[in-house]
Amino acid sequence: MQKYSGFGLLRHALTYHENWQRVWRNPKPKKKYDVIIVGGGGHGLATAYYLARVHNITNVAVVEKGYLGGGNTARNTTIVRSNYLWDEAALLYEHAMKLWEGLSQELNYNLMFSQRGVLNLGHTLQDMRDIHRRVSANRLNGIDSEALDARGVQEIVPILDCSASRRYPVLGASWQPRAGVARHDAVAWGFARAADAMGVDLLQQCEVTDILTEDGAAIGVETRQHGVIHGDRIGCVVAGNSGVLAKMAGFRLPIESHPLQALVSEPIRPLLDTVVMSNHVHGYISQSDKGDLVIGAGIDGYNGYGQRGSYPTVEHTLQAIVEMFPIFSRVRMNRQWGGIVDTCPDACPIISDTPVENLFFNCGWGTGGFKATPGSGHVFATTLATGQPHDLARPFSMFRFHNGALIDEHGAAGVAH
Amino acid sequence: MFYLFCPYCGEHREEEEFHPRGQAHLSRPEDPDGCTDEEWGDFIYFRTNPRGLHHEIWVHAVGCRKFFNVTRDTQSYEILETYRMGSAPRITDLNDKQQSREVQA
Ligand SMILES: Cc1cc2nc3c(=O)[nH]c(=O)nc-3n(C[C@H](O)[C@H](O)[C@H](O)COP(=O)(O)OP(=O)(O)OC[C@H]3O[C@@H](n4cnc5c(N)ncnc54)[C@H](O)[C@@H]3O)c2cc1C
Ligand SMILES: [Zn+2]
Fold first, then answer.
1. Proximal ligand: closest to the CA of B68
2. B3-27+47-104 has CATH 3.40.190.10 classification
3. Which of A127, A171, A217, B98 has its CA 20 to 30 A from that of A67?
4. Which tens digit of pLDDT belongs to each residue from B23-45?
5. Strands B11-14 and B3-6
């Protein structure tokens, strides 16, 4: 693997940047792999990377129907935080946060991970009670978290309208200073490049059309472009398409797929250097390094596999943004798009074995899985390497919807991704 | 913005008047006390979540406030029919567009 550095950049400038090595190979599928990962989004690629790096399992294929990172990974609003309420979720997301903190160096790839802090606003007395409760729970779990009053919020974001005369006045917020944003594509590409260098086959343009089983155990996948590929263990990491893959294997999941959209404005001068989210007025915003405002919304209520969002949601979201930031009322929006999110009834993921032996699913991250990308891959690699869940993943079995051990993170998830 | 035909109001109304309420035709277990945890969990949480034809419940939230059923394509978002609670869908196969046109007419 060619090492990236400032010096390398200079050296390649001398040859007009014409001699850069390809970032990964484009291999022919083998007949059989130790592990097949279906879905080449951030989570699938991270899983492949940690399988190779931590468990020395390199006879691995990542099977992706489109291009790497072209699903929700490329469509999200890149917020990374770990201030979840319940121990199980908080520990999982904090595990991811710790991995994020060293990841650019580890992957030798600039993930543009920017710990600029995230504010979750409170607009009602109940919001504030919930915030205080969550902040306390975070602190007990060793996660940096503070409760601020309106003055404290105003100091961090001078352009936020914190006046008491608003229809939904800002009463305060939770504040996680280590939270922030990262470059979404870079995460997929960084993991892909490092996994490829260790021998993982990244098979793009290869759609899984069936999961092959024998005596109740998965033995491989049927693909549209390359026929049958056999695997000892199969991990499905296909986000919004999880229900489709589960159907191939003959079972259902407690998951429904919804469109979730985001939009960005024309680029403007830097004036928002943190992330502001509000569950109550239902919108969130940050500013990218390019200068565009990155704005996110709630899901469309109906089930949908169309990668686009509805207009009423755009309208509601922008109302929320203008309620918080009257200063943005005349900013023009440039682009709008959608992804398909796999929402789970308790707003927590599923990292689990399934009714089919040797077949595992990592899904249900819904509106908020980008932040978990390295952690999700790290723990799922343990599942695929050993057949047993990592301790942090154990509570996230799909069978919690049978035994009732749900982890209700609707409060911390909400619109907040 | 799309329009949905409320089978009770007998009119097309804007999407904003309605709320979707998930998969239709799920029947509550007949003998709740005799159900296993698996059966209860399946009824409450597990869904088919199809990519394609979907029968689902909507409510005319700011209209007549009645619940009704919709057959919809979750990929193209085409609405194929709407029908009252308690009745069966006429369209159960996406390939049957002709059937759909008759219903819409
Ligand atoms: C608009 C929007 C905003 C969001 N904002 C945030 C945020 O701010 N913070 C946050 O933490 N999270 C956010 N999320 C959620 C986050 O994007 C996802 O949880 C996360 O990216 C999921 O990663 P993944 O790798 O599991 O899925 P994906 O990136 O979707 O990857 C799944 C892959 O599987 C492939 N696939 C599907 N079916 C098949 C098949 N049959 N065969 C082969 N391949 C297949 C797809 O092509 C896709 O590439 C947001 C999501 C959206 C849509
Ligand atoms: Zn009506």
1. 2
2. no
3. A217
4. 999 999 999 999 999 999 999 99
5. antiparallel
Tell me the percentage of chain A whose pLDDT exceeds 90. Answer: 97
**What single-letter amino acid sits at A6?**
G
B41 — contact with chain A (CB < 8 Å)? yes
Query: Where in A95-248 does DSSP place strands (E)?
Result: 118-122, 146-149, 172-176, 180-181, 201-203, 208-214, 217-223, 227-236
The predicted structure's pLDDT at residue A207: 98
Average pLDDT on B76-105 reads 81
Q: What tens digit of pLDDT does each residue of A92-116 get?
A: 999 999 999 999 999 999 999 999 9
Predicted confidence (pLDDT) at residue B101 exceeds the cutoff of 60? no
Are the C-beta atoms of residues A289 and A329 closer than 8 Å to each other?
A: no
Least confident of A30-44, A198-212, A218-232, A307-321: A307-321
Smallest Cα distance from B69 to chain A, Å: 13
Q: How far is CA A7 from CA A12, A109, A372, in A?
A: 9, 14, 32
Q: In the predicted model, is pLDDT for residue A267 greater than 70?
A: yes
Q: Which of A294, A406, A293, A281 is nearest to A350 (CA)?
A: A406
Closest CA to A412 of A71, A116, A140, A145: A145
With CA atoms as reference, report the closest residue to A29 among A185, A276, A222: A222
- Residues forming a β-bridge with A338: A261
Structure pTM?
0.96
Chain-chain contact of A304 with B77 (C-beta, under 8 angstroms): yes
Backbone φ and ψ for A179, nearest 5 degrees, come out as -75, 175
Structure tokens at A305: 């596999």
Could you tell me the domains of chain A? Answer: 29-113+180-254+344-417 (3.50.50.60), 114-179+256-343 (3.30.9.10)
Residue A208, ligand 1, Cβ within 6 A: yes
Ligand 1 atom with minimal separation from the A341 CA? 53
Instruction: Kindly state the average pLDDT of the residues A309-333.
Output: 95
Backbone phi and psi for residue A117, each to the nearest 5 degrees, phi listed first: 85, 150
Tell whether ligand 1 has an atom less than 6 A from the beta carbon of residue A77. Answer: yes
DSSP-derived letter for residue A31 is: S
Q: Is the CB of A417 under 6 A from ligand 1?
A: yes
- Map tokens 């990962």 to a residue: A37
Quote the pLDDT of residue B105: 44
Confidence check: pLDDT of B102 > 60: no
Q: Which residues of A touch B22 (CB under 8 A)?
A: 256, 303
